[in-house]
Design goal:
By secondary structure, the protein is an alpha/beta fold. The chain contains 23 helices and seven strands. Strands 2-3-4-1-5 form a five-stranded parallel beta sheet, covered by helices on one side. A two-stranded parallel ribbon has the order 6-7. It is globular, with a radius of gyration of 34 Å.
Amino acid sequence: MKYLGFARKYRPQNFSQVVGQKEIAAVLENTLRNKHEYHAYLFFGPRGVGKTSMARILAKAFNCKQGPTPIPCNECDFCKRISVGEDVDVLEIDGASTRGIDEIRALKESTKYLPANARYKIFIIDEVHMLTMQAFNALLKILEEPPAYIKFIFATTEIHEIPETILSRCQRFNFNQITMVDVIAHLQEIAKKENLVIEDGVLEKLARRSGGALRDSLVLLEQLATFGDGKIDHQALQQITGTALEDAQGIISALIAQEPVRLLGIIRTFITRGGHIGNLLDCLIQGFRDLLVINLAPDQVDWIEGTPEYQGWIVEQKTKVQPDFLHTAIRFLLDAKTLLRRANLDRIVLETTLLKILRMDSLFSLKVVTDQLTQLEQRLYQKVGEPVFPPLVPRLGVASTMEAAGVVLAPPEPKKIKQMPAQEAQTSASTLPTKPPAQESSQLQAQPTSVQAQPASVQAQPTSVQAQPTSV
């Protein structure tokens, strides 16, 4: 018998074996038990959470010799052929490669023929969102009024790219990301069956690296088992997957402590070891997100997925940063990920982004600056009194002042401005346009204080200064 990887070898064969999707499994079981089969199903959710496996189980439940049944026997010829993808009446189609209107027309034409052996002819279309708009339009009629012996099961990770006309003709099932607890429990079960020796804490780190994708966890577990000849420890995990998680923690600590030399050193070591910058950015974004969550919800440590050591580190760092800093840092990192897709200078993008985050204590919000300028403008035109500015509050929660940032908003020494009576101002405004240049010059000399306070702008437009003294 040929070798099968863990992801295929331990693929669930009935609804009770599906990990992390118990609600969906219960709905489908009740549908089959009550004979309420629908003609089109749409499974959507993240990668590696069991969409295709659930589609095969549903196909077996429809065509099992004892069915339709909520518990396929996995013993009859129909179940066995569907499990390995060899049943002629259950067609698995890749939407990424079979996406044009011609292929869908051929599929539609085949629906005119009865199934060869089974009860239903079932079409499983994976990554259905990859179909062209013309192909979707070709599906509409058959989805609306299909023959009684036709079933469609669609699977996708991008439901928002599917037209509403298709969605309205399907029963939709949202597959959730599998929790770390479920992933770890499943990995422990498989490790026991495979007689693997695993060091404490390795499965927790492995599950966190997979991001809730069970298939990714199984692939990585198999790779580690092969690397260590049945023994899996932290060193093997680090050599196979890299140190993105650990380096991300070091970078965040360096950012908080304002240590640029340490920050650049971590990046240099990470790249020297062949680390992938995209993975490091993902870990940084996740770390800042966890800090933001624990900062705003201090008692919800369970909302932070990771090992107990990682959760403790997050709790320890929460008092050192403020939410505004974390929001801005996440935005900068997301912008860096977008830039990585358009530039080949990955290291420069990463370093400049992190150094910009490091110096965010010298960046103040636009609101702070505009408020200060507004106060300055008001005080400059006051008749008496010194301008009083409230102390600046750093937006990012890092101790600093405007002077440390090199920004000085202190106004010049205020001078008393001679105000003109309203009646005199109106008379002056009405007569200014007819005065010759000599009279304008003499009028300016009559108000030396107001002109000298702003020599460049006032002399360029003398009439505006004299025409509206009361508004000033």
